[in-house]
Amino acid sequence: MEAFTGFIETKVELWKLDAKEEISALIAKMLVVMLVALGAVMVLLFFTLGLAYLFNDLLESNILGFVIVGSFYALVTIGLYFKRNTIIETIVRKQNKEIEGVSEEEDGL
């Protein structure tokens, strides 16, 4: 009976270590994704400002360039809003395929 108890305790400890390892990897991946996203947002921000100022120069206006660029982003946002369910379903389907692939790999071990 003691051997069985020891086996269970060892298994629980192994699961805890696996969980800690997976959580650490997930946190590291999330940090990298957040840093890349921050960089992408900064690039987008500066390109957007540059484009707005370029339109202002071309149209000899102080505000029209910003209106044009803002309108473009408004159209993109409206389009994303109306396509949100399709986008969500696509992401969920992709995640489910990845999860099923992981489960099949574990079953093969």
Quick recap:
This protein is mostly helical.
Summary keywords:
109 residues, mainly alpha, 94% helix, elongated
Question: Describe it for me?
Answer:
The protein is mainly α. It has one domain. 94% of the residues lie in helices and 0% in strands. It starts with a helix and ends with a helix.
Write the layout of secondary structure elements.
Blueprint: H1 2-59, H2 64-82, H3 84-108
Helix pairs in contact: 1-2
Number of domains: 1
Mean pLDDT, nearest integer? Answer: 89
Strand residues, percent: under 5%
What kind of sheet is the major sheet? none
Judging from the principal axes of the Cα atoms, what is the shape?
A: elongated
Number of helices: 3
Radius of gyration: 25 Å
- Poorly predicted sequence stretches spanning 5 or more consecutive residues: none
Taking the alpha carbons of the first and last residues, their distance comes to 28 Å
> How many E strands?
0
Pairing-aware structural class of the strands and helices? mainly alpha
- Fraction of residues in helix: over 70%
N-to-C series of helices and strands:
HHH
